[in-house]
Amino acid sequence: MDENSIYLDHGAATPLDERVLEAMKPYFSQKFFNPSSPYLPAVLVRREYEEAKSVLANLIGAKSGEIIITAGATESINLVFNSISGHVIVPNIEHQAILANAFCKDSTIVKSNTKGLISPESIKSAIKPNTQLVSVALANNEIGTIQPIREIAEVIKSERQNRLMRGEKMPIYLHTDASQASGLLDINVARLGVDMMTLNAGKIYGPKQVGLLWSASHVKLQPLVIGGGQERGLRSGTENVAGTIGFAKALEIVIQHRNFETKRLKDLRDMMQNELINNFPDAVVSGHQKHRLANYLHVAFPRIDGERLVFILENRGVLVATGSACSANKANRSHVLDAIGLSDEIANGSIRITLGRLSTQDNIRTATEIIIEEVRNEYKRLNT
Amino acid sequence: MDENSIYLDHGAATPLDERVLEAMKPYFSQKFFNPSSPYLPAVLVRREYEEAKSVLANLIGAKSGEIIITAGATESINLVFNSISGHVIVPNIEHQAILANAFCKDSTIVKSNTKGLISPESIKSAIKPNTQLVSVALANNEIGTIQPIREIAEVIKSERQNRLMRGEKMPIYLHTDASQASGLLDINVARLGVDMMTLNAGKIYGPKQVGLLWSASHVKLQPLVIGGGQERGLRSGTENVAGTIGFAKALEIVIQHRNFETKRLKDLRDMMQNELINNFPDAVVSGHQKHRLANYLHVAFPRIDGERLVFILENRGVLVATGSACSANKANRSHVLDAIGLSDEIANGSIRITLGRLSTQDNIRTATEIIIEEVRNEYKRLNT
Question: pTM for this structure?
Answer without folding.
Answer: 0.96
